[in-house]
Amino acid sequence: MAVHTKPLKCKIGPSILNADLSQLYVESQRLLDNGADYLHLDVMDGHFVPNLSIGHPVVKCLRNKIRTAFFETHMMVSEPGKWVEPMAEAGVNQYTFHIEPVKDVIPLCRKVREAGMQVGLALKPGTGIEAVRQYIDHADMILIMTVEPGFGGQKFMGEMMPKVQWLRHNYPGLDIEVDGGVGLNTITACAEAGANMIVSGTAIINANDQKAVIASLRETVESSIHKCNV
């Protein structure tokens, strides 16, 4: 069981989905050098979502180059149970999977934990918060998608913020992540709702000054966290 009692920390995890994947190591290292707290690695199977992306061999290659950074894989796949061991072997720290295609969520949480990874549970925009309530104590983090999973560069869905607010109100110490369309124009809504883990793709990757964007996102979130922690 996960314990949600630590003081909240802001963590910025750029999504590498929109990066130049032929330069994945260089781009990833630059993001970390510019202040990223972790890397958010989008894994898609062309089935659960209509797109294909990287798999565990790529993650393993990246881990061989980047030894110490925190890797989160966001498993947008129909059978997340299939990839637990390969991702653990590839050096993943947190395995975040969607609850929608999973019949038995708690045994899968246990499997992820036994493989030595933290557990993240993700919800698509159309999935209500009640679908995850019974599993929160088995997870280290809940990811609220603020776009339909599968493609980068979509418009942020502000109507997802009540889910974040509900989680923060009921689980003050829980890591809550938002992913999709998050950037300088939408970070305030996320921070005020209570998100502390921020996935941002296009807004960071395409920025002329990645360091400044990451610092600005962090500042907005930290001022809101301060109110939560007080």
Automatic annotation (TrEMBL):
Keywords, in A-Z order: Carbohydrate metabolism, Cobalt, Isomerase, Manganese, Metal-binding, Zinc
Active site: 42 (proton acceptor), 179 (proton donor)
HAMAP family (alphabetical): RPE
Ranges that cross the membrane: none
Pathway: Carbohydrate degradation; pentose phosphate pathway; D-xylulose 5-phosphate from D-ribulose 5-phosphate (non-oxidative stage): step 1/1
Family from the record: Belongs to the ribulose-phosphate 3-epimerase family.
Gene Ontology biological process: carbohydrate metabolic process; pentose-phosphate shunt, non-oxidative branch
Protein name: Ribulose-phosphate 3-epimerase
Residues that coordinate or bind a divalent metal cation: 40, 42, 74, 179
Gene giving rise to this polypeptide: AUGUSTUS-3.0.2_11438
CDD domains listed in its UniProt record: RPE
Listed cofactors: Mn(2+); Zn(2+); Co(2+); Fe(2+)
SUPFAM superfamilies named in the record: Ribulose-phoshate binding barrel (SSF51366)
InterPro entries attached to this UniProt entry: Aldolase_TIM, Ribul_P_3_epim, Ribul_P_3_epim-like, RibuloseP-bd_barrel
PROSITE patterns: RIBUL_P_3_EPIMER_1, RIBUL_P_3_EPIMER_2
Organism, as annotated: Tribolium castaneum
Keyword Manganese on entry: yes
